[in-house]
Design brief:
Elements: E1 7-11, E2 19-23, H1 44-54, H2 56-85, H3 95-117, H4 131-153, H5 160-190, E3 196-201, H6 204-216, E4 222-229, H7 236-241, E5 245-248, H8 252-259, E6 263-266, H9 274-283, E7 290-293, E8 305-310, E9 313-318, H10 326-345, H11 347-360, E10 366-372, E11 378-384, H12 391-398, H13 419-426, H14 434-440, E12 444-446, H15 453-456, E13 472-474, H16 476-479, H17 487-500, H18 503-519
Parallel strand pairs: 3-4, 3-6, 4-5, 6-7, 12-13
Antiparallel strand pairs: 1-2, 8-9, 10-11
Length: 524
């Protein structure tokens, strides 16, 4: 052994930080670990090095977006030139051609600069939500307004044909590039990469609920590594989830500083009131951790919640949910028009499936069932039959084997399902006849799951809010796990839809439905 003394220390607070660091000529660490431990005696240089390494993926992602946006602007400029001059270089000698040439050269840097000014490269807006795309649209609109204003102010001979083509194309390509980058980022996050280490402060039950929700949706990129609770007390729930309690609520800043987390998330509890949170924000100023506060009112998002300053206090103003009105009339018209068109286009598919159902087992091609719709009104829902005709009688013997969510019977290997029925259920083809319900107005394209009357009989006050809107052919339950959801999660998603409905929300759900159905996961 070398003459120099070799000491071995256990370092780190979180379980994945408990590695052995050998102090000899220097600490030995695995460079592949994005969250390697920090010695208790850390220097400013070591901390800066670690923070730099952990922010690498963010810098790389932002650089990718900058290049993508610049390329989008350049392609838009080239297409605008081709549209204005037919791609011929002969026009470049004219005054108009020279103006276009200058604009072609300046558009990429101006475009990227505008995105930067509108904070479209700020990490907290990237990867999730619509804020990133809204900022891209705002930046593109600013460029259009700037070009128009400068052309008028300085009498610049900028061809309108070029501007009309170049800028919209640049905007569309920018949005497309960011969407592709986001999809790639989500895949990496699902694999446990490109995540933000998070410390949660709150009561054990609330922390456990947040952990489960975050782990269900990996797109947000939060990895909860530890929790601070009142008195540093843990719970069996947290232990089962593998989340260690690393301190009390008074230790949040010290733990965040020692472990160098990316995010400190505080949950609503009496111990973390306004003054405490304000002091915590001050204490975190010398760290790299972002402080996020979960309000007591959850699942109410978007334009319904705005900050309303009153006497210097930032109060949350919560608008009423939009359950009636002109936009709902538009939704109904769109539902019926889309259903009529889909039924016309899919008529050959309907005939084929009906024939396969009839050939596979005895009984009718369609299955009719009473469901409960808006305001508690019952209606007859239509589906392709996917079970044997005596399924209801067989259910009595299978009730104890239910793998559903409490109110709804489900089995992954239900013996009542026919061979063709299993395929139809996997890809939700058995739901297609519900387009007739949408056409007649008893259902919508998007909405809560249509419940059975016996389920509604067991509803509490909260669940009755599901009945304030029409049930849907698809919904948040469809794109978030389908039959794999438990009762609490299914209820939360349905209520979230009711509380936050908007046309954009419907469009997002319809887009995600295609992915969920083609993947065939969670359907049985």
């Amino acid at each position: 052994m070398a003459a120099e003394e070799v000491a071995v220390h256990q370092v780190g607070v979180f379980p994945h930080q408990q590695r052995r660091v050998i102090d000899g000529s220097g600490p030995s660490r695995s460079s592949a670990d994005p969250f390697f431990p920090v010695p208790r005696r850390r220097t400013a240089t070591a901390g800066a090095h670690r923070a730099t390494r952990r922010a690498v993926w963010q810098r790389e992602y932002v650089r990718t977006l900058v290049v993508s946006d610049a390329v989008a602007a350049l392609v838009g400029a080239l297409l605008g030139w081709a549209a204005r001059f037919g791609g011929s270089p002969l026009h470049l000698g004219t005054t108009s051609g020279q103006a276009v040439l200058w604009l072609m050269a300046l558009l990429p840097p101006i475009w990227v600069a505008s995105m930067g000014l509108m904070r479209a490269y700020e990490p907290r807006f990237l990867g999730v939500g619509s804020e990133e795309f809204q900022r891209v649209l705002t930046a593109g609109t600013a460029v259009v307004a700037t070009v128009g204003t400068l052309s008028w102010a300085f009498s610049l001979d900028v061809a309108r044909g070029f501007v009309v083509v170049a800028l919209p194309v640049a905007g569309l390509l920018t949005l497309a590039g960011r969407l592709v980058a986001r999809r790639y980022l989500h895949r990496r996050r699902a694999a446990g990469e490109c995540v933000q280490s998070t410390l949660v402060a709150g009561h054990p039950g609330a922390v456990a609920a947040l952990v489960r929700q975050v782990r269900r949706d990996t797109d947000h990129g939060l990895r909860i590594d530890g929790a601070c609770t009142p008195g540093g007390r843990g719970s069996a729930e947290l232990q089962q989830l593998g989340v260690p309690v690393v301190g009390s609520l008074e230790d949040v800043a010290d733990v965040a500083r020692r472990t160098d987390v990316d995010v400190v998330a505080t949950l609503t509890c009496p111990e973390l009131d306004g003054p405490v949170l304000r002091r915590l924000g001050w204490q975190l100023e010398d760290t790299r951790a972002d402080l996020v506060v979960a309000p007591a009112l959850t699942d109410v998002v978007g334009p319904r919640v705005v900050i309303r300053p009153v006497s210097g206090l930032p109060l949350l103003h919560v608008d009423r949910p939009e359950l009636r009105g002109l936009r709902h009339v538009g939704k109904a018209l769109l539902d019926r028009g889309s259903a009529a068109l889909a039924l016309l286009l899919l008529s050959p598919v309907f005939l084929t499936i009906a024939a396969l159902v009839k050939l596979d087992s005895k009984g009718p091609a369609f299955f009719l069932q009473t469901r409960v719709g808006r305001d508690g009104r019952e209606f007859t829902m239509v589906k392709f039959r996917s079970m044997v005709t005596d399924a209801e009688q067989l259910l009595i013997d299978l009730r104890e084997k239910s793998e559903g969510n409490g109110l709804l019977f489900k089995m992954k290997r239900d013996p009542r399902i026919t061979r063709v029925g299993g395929f139809l259920r996997r890809y939700s083809l058995d739901e297609l006849p519900q387009l007739f319900n949408v056409l007649t107005g008893s259902m919508s394209l998007v909405g809560p799951r249509p419940p059975l009357p016996k389920e509604v009989a067991e509803y509490g006050d909260d669940l009755h809010r599901r009945l304030l809107v029409k049930p849907g052919l698809t919904g948040l339950w469809q794109v978030s796990g389908r039959s794999d959801l438990d009762l609490d999660e299914s209820t939360r998603l349905d209520l979230q839809y009711v509380e936050n409905w908007s046309p954009a929300f419907d469009a997002m759900i319809l887009a995600k439905t295609v992915k969920a159905v083609l993947g065939g996961r969670g359907a049985y």
